[in-house]
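User: Hi! I have a protein structure encoded as tokens and I'd like to know what sequence might fold into it. I'm fairly new to this, so please keep things simple.
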């Protein structure tokens, strides 16, 4: 409503909200005495035939808008005071309102970043990257930051499942699974343990113990985002199926073909920190130069000095043409390249000149899962003398080790019945692929999932043995050879769950006994359970390597360096790679 105004003899202007206020209407004066003058048509609204409780936003604002909210606020009254009960016996390390910090390892993915967990009164509330970790270097990605939410997820399974029915007693589940595993071992029926990429030494030892108890079990690694092409190429060229450890902090020239190394590729948190070291104009030796070839705009592409659009289907032509430029400059034989005439502009020539200028301090990478592309990338880096400089194959990465061929073989085996049992650990192939996996799993005589929620794969499994959250677990990780991270629980298990490693050791009959352990009476092992047994499994292994004091120090820092690395041959790699193109 427009405002009315009037003027008196002193030229003082007064504004009125409406004619009712101007004329001092009796009803208006009566309404002024009430906080809410307008009547609320609640009866009319609730009796409306079109009214539904699940109405849309417009209906909600129509019926229960500001007026109703204001009435609720105006009519609220002071509630009874509720007093919080303090600790009857306060833990020595806990001060109410003061946070404690613990070092651990992120379990959001298989990269294995070191983290610092903020814990307040027994509840983890925040994750940050650990500065003592050579992987996270004080940083943490969005996935790692959000992983704490899954600890308190109400969709987590509170108990194990048998044929979609909750069972509170783990011994019932263990008894049935052990019985079926024993029958399959006796009859020679094959069982596959399909896990994500595992770089935990203790977990691999637990799996080895399980395979020792059941010789018919095969362990297959599976990555939803596959690096199998790179792994296969390295196995052919170097005789070593591993992802290299890339050293962006040593690179003065970077050429990337579709590898979003600042966003999602391999170890982005580590790569971001290393990449940033030479991306300042005032850096000693000059700022590094980055050229990006990609089909879609990525975070890495937005940070490149030069970004060139590239069809993903033509990546082999691009890397092959680049190899020929370098081979020609070095007087080496060239390789046949399909459709190289279709490459627009002088982008490849510019990249070649940059790399030659910075030979020994350059790096060429590719995000392709095509082994042929990755073999050409290997040859490029060999020509540029990048190995042992910007690429470390001796202290290689353990972050991804899945095999597409092996996973496909497992699927076909389940479909045809040659694989009678399957155990899923950290994988959800029904979601990642298609419903054909669900049909294949249904044919298995034994199917087990360690999923913490009833995901698509767990829903079609006979048994679900829910795994602990990583913030409830003891474990370790070796994301890069010789770099050890440790995982320690920062909260007691929220639900009736159990670590997958404990389950495997339990079924194998290989859990260490806690009888007569000196720590059992010092609060470290609060009860003689499978959880404390697995702690002993981890502790006994690392105390044998680091010593008791070294293990405790490693838990404080969250990291340790294993100096017992074996030397790897390197000269024969050069012959095998370059020899393919001469």
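Assistant: Happy to help. Inverse folding works backwards from shape to sequence: for each of the 582 positions I chose a residue that suits the local structure. Here it is:
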């Amino acid at each position: 409503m427009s405002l009315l105004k009037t003027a008196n003899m002193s030229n003082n202007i007064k504004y009125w909200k409406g004619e009712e206020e101007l004329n001092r209407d009796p009803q208006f004066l009566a309404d002024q005495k009430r906080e809410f003058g307008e009547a609320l048509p609640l009866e009319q609204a609730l009796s409306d035939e079109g009214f539904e409780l699940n109405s849309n936003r417009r209906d909600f604002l129509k019926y229960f808008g500001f007026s109703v909210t204001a009435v609720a606020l105006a009519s609220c009254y002071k509630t009874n005071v509720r007093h919080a009960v303090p600790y009857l016996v306060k833990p020595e390390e806990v001060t109410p309102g003061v946070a404690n910090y613990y070092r651990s390892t992120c379990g959001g993915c298989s990269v294995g970043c070191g983290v610092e967990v903020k814990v307040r009164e027994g509840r983890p509330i925040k994750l940050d990257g650990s500065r003592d970790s050579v992987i996270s270097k004080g940083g943490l990605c969005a996935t790692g930051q959000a992983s704490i939410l899954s600890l308190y997820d109400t969709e987590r399974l509170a108990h194990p499942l048998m044929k979609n029915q909750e069972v509170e007693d783990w011994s019932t589940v263990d008894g049935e699974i052990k019985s079926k595993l024993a029958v399959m071992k006796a009859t020679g029926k094959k069982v596959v343990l399909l896990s994500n990429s595992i770089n935990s030494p203790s977990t691999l030892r637990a799996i080895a113990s399980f395979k020792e108890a059941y010789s018919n079990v095969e362990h297959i690694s599976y990555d939803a985002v596959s690096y199998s092409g790179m792994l296969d190429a390295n196995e052919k060229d170097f005789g070593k199926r591993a992802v290299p450890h890339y050293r962006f902090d040593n690179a003065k020239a970077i050429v990337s073909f579709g590898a979003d190394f600042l966003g999602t590729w391999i170890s982005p948190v580590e790569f971001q920190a290393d990449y940033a070291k030479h991306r300042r104009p005032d850096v000693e030796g000059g700022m590094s130069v980055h050229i990006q070839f990609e089909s879609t705009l990525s975070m890495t592409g937005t940070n490149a000095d030069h970004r060139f659009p590239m069809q993903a289907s033509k990546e082999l032509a691009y890397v092959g043409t680049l190899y020929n430029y370098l081979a020609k400059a070095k007087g080496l034989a060239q390789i046949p390249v399909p459709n190289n005439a279709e490459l627009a502009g002088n982008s490849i020539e510019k990249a070649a000149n940059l790399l030659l200028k910075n030979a020994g301090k350059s790096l060429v990478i590719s995000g392709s899962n095509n082994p042929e592309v990755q073999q050409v990338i290997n040859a490029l880096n060999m020509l540029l003398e990048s190995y042992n400089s910007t690429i470390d194959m001796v202290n290689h990465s353990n972050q991804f080790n899945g095999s597409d061929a092996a996973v496909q073989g497992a699927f076909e085996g389940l479909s045809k019945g040659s694989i009678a049992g399957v155990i899923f650990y950290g994988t959800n192939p029904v979601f990642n692929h298609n419903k054909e996996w669900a049909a294949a799993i249904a044919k298995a005589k034994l199917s087990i999932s360690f999923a913490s929620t009833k995901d698509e794969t767990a829903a079609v499994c006979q048994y679900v043995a829910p795994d602990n959250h990583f913030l409830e677990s003891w474990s370790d990780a070796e994301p890069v050879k010789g770099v050890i991270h440790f995982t320690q629980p920062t909260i007691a298990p929220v639900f009736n769950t159990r670590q997958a490693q404990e389950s495997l050791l339990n079924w194998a009959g290989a859990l260490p006994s806690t009888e007569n352990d000196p720590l059992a009476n010092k609060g470290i092992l609060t009860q003689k359970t499978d959880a404390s047994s697995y702690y002993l499994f981890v502790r006994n292994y690392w105390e044998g390597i680091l010593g008791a004091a070294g293990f405790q120090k490693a838990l404080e820092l969250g990291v340790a360096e294993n100096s017992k690395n074996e030397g790897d041959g390197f000269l024969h790699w050069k012959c095998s790679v370059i020899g393919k193109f001469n």
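A useful reference point when you look it over: The longest strand covers residues 114-120. Feel free to ask if any position seems puzzling.
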